[in-house]
Structure formats: structure tokens, C-alpha cells
Give the backbone structure.
Amino acid sequence: MPATETFLIPKRRRDVTTARGRLHKALADWGVPDELADVVVLLASELVTNAVLHCRISHAQVRVTLTLHGTDLTLEVSDPDRDRLPRLHHSGPNDEGGRGLALVSALADEWGCRQELYTKCVWARFTLAGRRDVAPATP
């Protein structure tokens, strides 16, 4: 059975830190190697920040879901601004932002986005290659 951590955060910049902390704890509890956990938390920070900054729905909440199923780890970040799908673009050397999806593209094994009935979801998938021993801790 897959292990899942799902939570909502308000659409506020200061709550991105909360998301990073919760994901870091879940990854540690599941025995995910530190190097991969650091990458997942970095990309989660980018995706949650994008949702917080670009969602045009007032008083929205951002849903974060992390799922470990065998050797597949999936991060999903959803917000209710379903018609504004993110797109990868190239930032110039002097641009202050716009590199989040480039990082996701470079560091995740796969990534994408989808429109759902009331939300959009941006996801990133990682493979714990050769790590079949990774499993959720039992209480």
C-alpha cells in the first residue's frame, strides 16, 4: 500500500516554509535518502511558491500531496486556478525569477501538469533506483 502525505496550506508566501517542513519530515520517516529528499523539498518549494504567487483565486488553498509507492515517489501541488497552466520558459541571465520549472524539468525524472474538475495539478515524479528497501516507518 502506498504511503501518502497530503495537506493544505493557505495561499501565502509565509506558508511555503510549512510545506517544506512537512515534506522533509515525511521523506525522513519513509527512509528516503537525504540527497533525493533535498531535491524533492527544493522542487516542492518551487511548485508551492508558483501556486502561491500565480493563483488568481482569492483566499485559495494549495494542496500538496506526496506519495511513495514502491520505488516511485510523486509530488503533486494543486491550486484552484485551473485555467492557468504553467509553462516552461527560458529566463535570461539577468532575470530575477522564472527558473522554477526549469529546475523541476532538470531534477525530476518526469513532470507535467493536468487540469482537474476544479483545480490544476503540477506534478513531479522521482524513482528511488535500487532502493526497494525504502518503506514507510511503521507506527
Q: What stands out?
A: The first helix runs from residue 16 to 29. The domain at 3-127 is CATH 3.30.565.10 (Heat Shock Protein 90).
